[in-house]
């Protein structure tokens, strides 16, 4: 008795352009600007990087640090509070809103994504926002998936995966895949 395995014809899959939120020309202009001014490791000015992100609709507070080699899929879906730090090599694949609270840290090589196909048979894109509350810290190479909220001052440890649709409590330290509470950031 053999089990039939189906293959999805990806030419019929619902297109990702439904999540663009801007005309094609704006998306393409952003791709060029991102390459020249944001992702470019030779462009060392955080202020210039932030100005370009703002021109394309990012809402970024004051005194934010935005390191080189970062990628932002759609800046118009990015909201960053005052004094936040975004480390080198961070990839924000934000087909939905990504909200980074004030004084939050996203360390190097972290990946935040709001989109998934969630094992759908038609491969349709599903998007959900990511919320990183004030003071939270996503440490190096952590992954945060759509629908996840990282509580105030919580930490996601290196190489951990938060989400999808997970709520990490304020002040907790979270480790593993999936991220589970392993301690308190500020024990009394």
Tell me what the structure shows.
- By secondary structure, the chain is an alpha/beta fold.
- It has a single domain, classed as Hexapeptide repeat proteins (UDP N-Acetylglucosamine Acyltransferase, domain 1, 3 Solenoid), CATH 2.160.10.10.
- Helices cover 13% and strands 27% of the residues.
- The protein contains 2 helices and 20 strands.
- It has helices spanning 24-38, 46-55, and strands at 59-60, 65-66, 71-72, 78-80, 85-86, 91-93, 98-100, 105-106, 111-113, 115-116, 126-127, 130-132, 137-138, 143-144, 149-150, 155-156, 161-162, 167-168, 172-175, 180-184.
- A 7-stranded mixed β-sheet has the order 2-5-8-13-16-19-20. The chain has a 6-stranded parallel β-sheet with strand order 1-4-7-12-15-18, covered by helices on one side. The protein has a 5-stranded parallel β-sheet with strand order 3-6-9-14-17, with no helix packed on it.
- Helix 1 (24-38) runs antiparallel to helix 2 (46-55).
- The protein is globular, with a radius of gyration of 18 Å.
- The termini are far apart.
